[in-house]
């Protein structure tokens, strides 16, 4: 028999599943409150208190996420059709909302998606889903792999995570100016601190793009570096997220103690790359989390 908190969570989870499966429907408060079996007079506040987003914003971000997938597909619909599917009556309104949320016009995103800014922009949606839509990892999800050393260009982010979007924008602009495409030059994020350090200013992370081209020693933004080669425990994260903390916790708390392995003296890092996944009919950001081993 479920406890009262478990029953509450299950009812809210039903709402998220219904939204995922009925994005083309009229997802009004009355419908969603009925799915949750809550009073429609209180459901809006309950949803916002639980997820940190209003129902309207949650649905809007979910539709925007789907629209971005459809824009990135090689066989994509027209922008007008994508706008209509996202609930907008005109392409201009969709374009304004898309640019406001993701920092690019739909046509620019279609041509060159900025997945770093995309991840940051959809962070509130990701955080909301992480509350009740947990991914459960097990030992078989982790593989041990010998990875080669990879020369990279490094842009450091030091300080509050609230400024990450600006670092992503500068990183993308530099990569584009140097003809380094995500499709041909893997990108990495090296996590040199906790995701939420006790002091926000202590957050530390490196953005890296693989390249063997020389970097000016006095370059104000970039420096040359290397993702070291060696054995790594690799955990593939399904789907898209800007919060890899649950995956990292699993590696450190659950996998490492029973593996007989020891961590090497290099931070945990991830690699993101684009890949077409037929099951979801979209370009997904495939993420692999690497824990360097001795």
Would you write up a description of this structure?
There is one protein chain. The protein has 294 residues and is an alpha+beta fold. Helix content is 43%, strand content 21%. The chain has eleven helices and eight strands. The chain has an eight-stranded antiparallel sheet with strand order 1-6-8-7-3-4-2-5. Helix 1 packs across helix 2, helix 4 packs antiparallel against helix 5 (79-85) and helix 5 crosses helix 6 (91-102). The N and C termini lie far apart (46 Å). The model is unreliable at 275-284 (pLDDT under 50).
Q: Tally the helices: what do you get?
A: 11
Which range does the strand content fall in?
15-25%
Number of strands: 8
> What is the distance, rounded to the nearest whole angstrom, between the alpha carbons of the first and last residues?
46 Å
The radius of gyration computed from the alpha-carbon positions, rounded to a whole number of angstroms, is: 21 Å
Structural class: alpha+beta
Shape: globular
Spatial strand arrangement across the major sheet: 1-6-8-7-3-4-2-5
What is the succession of H and E elements? HHHHHHHHHEEHEEEEHEE
Low-confidence stretches: 275-284
Task: State the share of residues found in helices, binned by percent.
Answer: 40-55%
For the sheet with most strands, the description reads: 8 strands, antiparallel
Instruction: Determine the mean pLDDT.
Output: 85
């Amino acid at each position: 028999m479920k406890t009262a908190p478990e029953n509450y969570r299950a009812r809210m989870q039903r709402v998220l599943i219904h939204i995922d499966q009925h994005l083309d429907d009229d997802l009004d408060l009355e419908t969603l409150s009925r799915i949750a079996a809550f009073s429609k007079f209180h459901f809006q506040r309950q949803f916002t208190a639980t997820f940190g987003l209003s129902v309207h914003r949650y649905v809007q971000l979910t539709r925007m996420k789907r629209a971005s997938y459809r824009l990135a597909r090689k066989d994509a619909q027209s922008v007008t059709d994508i706008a209509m599917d996202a609930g907008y009556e005109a392409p201009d309104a969709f374009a304004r909302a898309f640019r406001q949320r993701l920092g690019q016009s739909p046509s620019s995103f279609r041509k060159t998606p900025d997945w770093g800014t995309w991840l940051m922009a959809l962070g509130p949606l990701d955080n909301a889903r992480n509350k009740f839509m947990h991914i459960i990892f097990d030992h078989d999800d982790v593989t041990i792999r010998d990875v080669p050393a990879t020369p990279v260009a490094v842009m450091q982010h030091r300080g509050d995570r609230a400024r990450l979007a600006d670092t992503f924008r500068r990183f993308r602009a530099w990569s584009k100016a140097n003809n380094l495409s995500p499709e041909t030059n893997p990108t990495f994020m090296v996590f040199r601190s906790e995701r939420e350090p006790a002091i926000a200013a202590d957050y530390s992370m490196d953005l890296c793009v693989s390249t063997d081209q020389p970097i000016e020693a006095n370059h104000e933004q970039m420096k040359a570096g290397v993702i070291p080669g060696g054995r790594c425990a690799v955990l593939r994260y399904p789907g898209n997220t800007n919060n890899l903390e649950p995956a990292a916790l699993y590696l450190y708390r659950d996998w490492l103690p029973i593996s007989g392995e020891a961590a090497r003296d290099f931070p945990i890092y991830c690699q993101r790359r684009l890949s077409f996944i037929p099951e979801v009919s979209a370009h997904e950001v495939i993420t692999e989390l690497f824990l360097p081993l001795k």
